[in-house]
Amino acid sequence: MSESKIISLRVDLDDAQVPEKFAWRVDELQEEWIEAKAFMLSVYESGSGDVMKMDLWAKEFFIEDMNRLVYFSLQSICDAYFRATSNAELSNEFRSFVEHFGRRTGLAEPPNG
């Protein structure tokens, strides 16, 4: 028999409905919520082929935090794309942009040379 898990995300809003903080947990058996400051969620709907996208961040989320979130998210997308498609050429082109982004934001070292 297969097993299912529920991933829960809690968003605490201020009086103006602006996200103040987030927390998540894997399922209802995990007692403690893990605090977070932002999340990016993409869901591919199998019937329509549409992609539902939700990006939220807390009021106290700084530009440096956003740079880090985007840089590491893009790296992960590159890895996932390559694992799913084995398209090394396109994956490497995308990775070049990610490294450029990382250098511009100070998160990646300039290439040697």
Count all strands and give the number: 5
What gross morphology would you assign?
globular
Distance between the termini: 55 Å
Q: Taking all residues together, what is the mean pLDDT?
A: 93
Beta fraction of the residues? 25-35%
Biggest sheet layout? 3 strands, antiparallel
Return Rg in Å. 17 Å
User: What strand order characterises the main sheet?
Assistant: 1-2-3
Number of domains: 2
Explain the layout of strands and helices:
Elements: E1 8-13, E2 19-25, E3 34-36, E4 38-44, E5 51-57, H1 63-85, H2 88-104
Antiparallel strand pairs: 1-2, 2-3, 4-5
Helix pairs in contact: 1-2
What would you say this structure looks like, in words?
The structure is a single chain. The protein has helices spanning 63-85, 88-104; strands spanning 8-13, 19-25, 34-36, 38-44, 51-57. The protein has 113 residues and is of the alpha+beta class. It is globular, with a radius of gyration of 17 Å. The termini are far apart. 4% of the residues are buried. The model has no long low-confidence stretch (mean pLDDT 93).
